[in-house]
Amino acid sequence: MATIADIGVSALINILSMLAFLIAFALLRIQPINDRVYFTKWYIAGKRSSPRNRGGGVVGKIVNLNCKTYLSFLNWIPQALQMSESEIIAHAGFDSAVFLRIYLLGLKIFGPIAVVALLVLIPVNASGGTLFFLSRDLVVSNIDKLSISNVRPKSYKFFVHISMEYLFTFWACYMLYKEYDRVASMRLKFLASKDRCPEQFTVLVRNVPHISGHTVSDSVESFFQKNHPGQYLCHQGVYSAKKFAKLVKKRSKLQNWLDYNQLKFERQPDKRPTRKTGFLGLWGKRVDSIDFYNQEIKDLDEKMIIERQKIMKDPKSVMPAAFVSFKSRWGAAVCAQTQQSKNPTLWLTRWAPEPRDVYWKNLAIPFVSLTIRKLMISVLLFALVFFYIIPIAFVQSLANLEGLERVAPFLRPIIEWKLAKSFLQGFVPGLALKIFLFVLPSILMIMSKIEGHVCLSVLERRTAAKYYYFMLVNVFLGSIVAGTAFQQLHAFLHQSATQIPRNIGVSIPMKATFFITYIMIDGWAGIAGEILRLKPLVIFQLKKMFIVKTERDLEKAMDPKSIDFPETLPSLQLYFLLGTVYMAVTPILLPFILIFFAFAFFVYRHQVINVYNQKYESAGAFWPHVHGRIIGSLIISQLLLMGLLSTKKAANSTPFLVVLPILTLTFHQYCKSRFEPAFRKYPLEEATTKDTQDEASSASDIELKSYLSDAYLHPIFHAVEEVELTEVKVDKPRPR
Amino acid sequence: MATIADIGVSALINILSMLAFLIAFALLRIQPINDRVYFTKWYIAGKRSSPRNRGGGVVGKIVNLNCKTYLSFLNWIPQALQMSESEIIAHAGFDSAVFLRIYLLGLKIFGPIAVVALLVLIPVNASGGTLFFLSRDLVVSNIDKLSISNVRPKSYKFFVHISMEYLFTFWACYMLYKEYDRVASMRLKFLASKDRCPEQFTVLVRNVPHISGHTVSDSVESFFQKNHPGQYLCHQGVYSAKKFAKLVKKRSKLQNWLDYNQLKFERQPDKRPTRKTGFLGLWGKRVDSIDFYNQEIKDLDEKMIIERQKIMKDPKSVMPAAFVSFKSRWGAAVCAQTQQSKNPTLWLTRWAPEPRDVYWKNLAIPFVSLTIRKLMISVLLFALVFFYIIPIAFVQSLANLEGLERVAPFLRPIIEWKLAKSFLQGFVPGLALKIFLFVLPSILMIMSKIEGHVCLSVLERRTAAKYYYFMLVNVFLGSIVAGTAFQQLHAFLHQSATQIPRNIGVSIPMKATFFITYIMIDGWAGIAGEILRLKPLVIFQLKKMFIVKTERDLEKAMDPKSIDFPETLPSLQLYFLLGTVYMAVTPILLPFILIFFAFAFFVYRHQVINVYNQKYESAGAFWPHVHGRIIGSLIISQLLLMGLLSTKKAANSTPFLVVLPILTLTFHQYCKSRFEPAFRKYPLEEATTKDTQDEASSASDIELKSYLSDAYLHPIFHAVEEVELTEVKVDKPRPR
Known about the structure:
Two copies of one chain form a homodimer.
Chain A: H1 4-29, H2 35-38, H3 40-44, H4 57-62, H5 68-71, H6 76-82, H7 85-92, H8 94-126, H9 130-134, H10 136-139, H11 158-193, H12 198-201, E1 202-206, H13 216-227, E2 232-239, H14 242-267, E3 274-276, E4 286-288, H15 289-313, E5 318-326, H16 329-337, E6 348-351, H17 367-387, H18 389-399, H19 401-407, H20 412-416, H21 418-451, H22 456-480, H23 485-493, H24 499-507, H25 512-532, H26 534-546, H27 551-558, H28 565-582, H29 590-610, H30 623-647, H31 659-675, H32 677-680, H33 684-696, H34 701-708, H35 715-719, H36 722-725
Helix pairs in contact in A: 1-25, 6-29, 7-8, 8-11, 8-29, 11-30, 11-31, 14-15, 16-33, 17-21, 17-22, 18-21, 21-22, 22-28, 24-30, 25-29, 28-30, 30-31
């Protein structure tokens, strides 16, 4: 167990590295050459132009020469706070604004709890405990003195801890309720204030049955004409167009080369660029580049038109799914929420996601296949969470020297070389684990994709959930109980239901110092690393040096991506878990978490405003998950406290805790039924109100139809110029 | 452990008592005096008249003198089988027909399983087992020789049991799937073939918000006018009318007396009946009875009209709930399946149950209260299932002699009397438990009512679920593991997750003889008791002797009630559980269950046709529960077999079983999403089809409105004559 001095040293190191990151950030961000990395969002919004066009000399375009700007290296914090929440919603989207609220929620929950816990529990724990008297000199500086470990077994003081757990749970639930209420009403307001957009009128229909003699388009048309008379407007089919997608990709590459050559020609008008016609331009006849690419593109366009017509006509490339649009939001709301067909596996309807949010590949998965996929992935996830260490250990055993020598005897001379030997032995065994942890989010995302969800937002939420389970077992439990997850699973199966929380609970106070260090490294320094954006910076500069040829390439290179929900949400939820578990046990941990929440709030507010560009808008659809996981943390905390107290022989006080998980679960049930429909359904009242508003501003059916007709066209068809697309707009309803 | 001879004796006794019951039934049912008890359904359907009017002399009216009818005492069985299923649906309702299918399903599942199990497992178990060789003479007639206990530990024969468990599970799932499919399509066909009825057009709206300055009726009207334009037709408010209900009750009593006196006068036209005006007609002025009751009824009618008007006007007696009717089934289907308001706790809509099925008292429970009630009842149910023995033990301890003497010293002389003493000591301690078990279904029904469900059918289903949990813990587990449920709970909490199925599994083969006896007593003899209807018979004859005055009283006295779903469904499911648990362990139990299913099928088919009169029609809404419980039984059976095998040290074969519960659960998930919507939702396709049919047969809106206007009037308002009710039909939509 670490002494307070140890923690002090660790804190110092972490604060120093944090400061180093921040100073580096402050220096790098004001260099014009990095402008596109640190202010990406503004470039995308079109509100900031390249500093190269702003004058200041050749050097001034690359390095900042204004000394004054170097002095205020923390001035990004007030800048980040200037924007109001509604401005953030307008600027960076609702998801980002709600994401920031999670950090605020952390402050709101743990702020008052920390104050009360420090004022009440620390004196209770510190005064007259076992450790205090028995070993005053030995461990007087141990932070265990401030934790529940310091209280004598069978003490009546445990009533204080129990009542504090009650108090803290009630406070947390109160804040959760208020926040859920606020987010739900914000979401409804946001949806209500949204301008007319295709997803309000559109429903995604899957599992369209195959009726012989009819095309999918015909069946969709006649089914909805019949069952939603007076409401059905039009629909858009879904195509499987792998070959076409390849052509589109090829065309964009050719276009890029053409742009590059034209740019080159503009800069040196005296010399037309040329290239050879052979493989990679290495041999063959030398031709004029611009003419060559123009001709190639023309040829490709012809091919694409033929291919596109083939897709439209070929019944095999039409998927049994469609986006059906209605004349009013009311009609769409009704269709999305009702069952259409006698057979509930056919004609499945749900709200259409935003066009940007659609994951096209999963639209046509049959119903039975979905069930099997879900089963397969849950089994796989379970195996991944508990047994991931087995293949890694296997790889590690292969990677050790004897194994390597056996597998590849020709490597013997290198292995025998001493430097390589120590490098291999010291570095390689850890490498397999590092690589695994690095690719884990991608693996989880692939698993979610196999599960068959149809929107990117759901895919990300499911990935976040999987990642959270992994962290819960391997980071939280793995740190508290020694041994691999596999060993823990074995132990859990062979322990009684009351023994498990005891075994975990009893080690909790002992691991407080470990988690404090974890928070400082992962939370404090990690967040400072987040604002520095070292990886995107390096990648951007490398790309700029070697790949970027045209303006389009530059834009591609600076793509900031969205906030990485699948990774940030679970780690955020882990902090909530740590906070709730330790709030009644070792309250000294809370200030460290508070610092994390506050600092991360500033950093992400800055990043949301200046960097990230959300690729879709789910209107805060992840909130129910955030809420649910915090409730889960509360229950874990209560169970572990019960386990801990029962090892302290506090038999007279522990039973009082039994009621708390039941109350918490009931609260969760209530919140679920009270607020979750706001995130899943679209009330008819709202739809009618918006429809009435629309009628006032007079938008006719025909206008609406043309507005909706190709909103849900597959993006690869959009990629081609607009002129050619007129031919693609099929599936318009016939005149009645 | 009982020998086969023991079981033979027990079987003989039970078969004899079964035969005695059947002969008693055969004798009693052909006596004209009992006709109304054994053919109630036909009286209610109006297809059978009192045998008294059929001639045959005075004695012939009471006792059957036709000797021929005595000879064929089993001829009710072919009679019961004559009706086809569709005739049963028309005669006794869909619920009854589906209820009978559960018994058939039992035969379909366990019939082939029994054949295979007896042919394959019995030889495997019997040959060369431990018991066979080691103790040939001692237990050679023990039925354990035929069970899995006879197989040597670590034997490879366990692979046979495991593959049989797989085979049986697949067969059971296949039958379950086919049956679910059949019942679901039968249900849809039944609903589609139903004539126009109010619940097709009506939606129950609860939690209507209070808007100041508006009555509930006004808010409902304007809300649905706005959000379901063109579809809304009319609505019917819900009133709280306790005082009115009392008046209605009083009036029906007076009417009965009037009828009685008029009947008396008709029989003796020379003497007008008289009565005294005082209390119970014991003193006071003697008046003409017919005039007296006529006057009383007239007075009461006036009071009732005033009271009714008061109810209609008083905003306090109008509940925040309403039955809203739509112009088409499509409109109602849309409203029932969508969310209406931004606040998901307001304007809650669901399909209106049949008017007969409504449980009026629960229509106005606020949303928050529902959550709290559910929590309270689940805690209570948990306590009831596991701790019910505690208060009973307390009562028993009070009821013993010393306790009684202390509480009531004046009883000492009686207690000291020897006969009374032995009676008290022998009988009273068991009495408390008996009384508890007798009133248990009523207690569970009251608990379900407190939970706040709005239809009788749901109330009965919830009660059945509660009763099943009670039986699962106290009958099934309680018989296998020794000790009270409370002790079991304690043991479970202190055992590991893998130890629990081991501890239960290991005792399963040992309890086979007990359960065989249980099946014979509760199943065979119990069902024979069911057909005898001894209790209703006695009660009917007693009522007829002492209470019945008029024809109306007679009808009341013969009321056969519905099939007692809350008791029959759980016990039926218990038989499925026994069958699945023992099918791979002690297959000799299966024939006993098969006999139960077959016999019970005949008996209930007879009862459904001749006796029971369903008070509502839920169109088989209980099927998903039946399906779910059988799946649950399969999983319990797999887990227990795993536990059992692991005690047999079959470490090489047991892991093969782990996959089975996962597959079974996935199958359940699939069935749930495939079929359950047919029981919960009403597809728009169906609604449209029926609407189109209706249009063809031309039913105008006005006609429909008058048809629906008082379909959902509170039944007590219906009780009063139709003439007066014209004034009560308020809440008609105003002319537009």
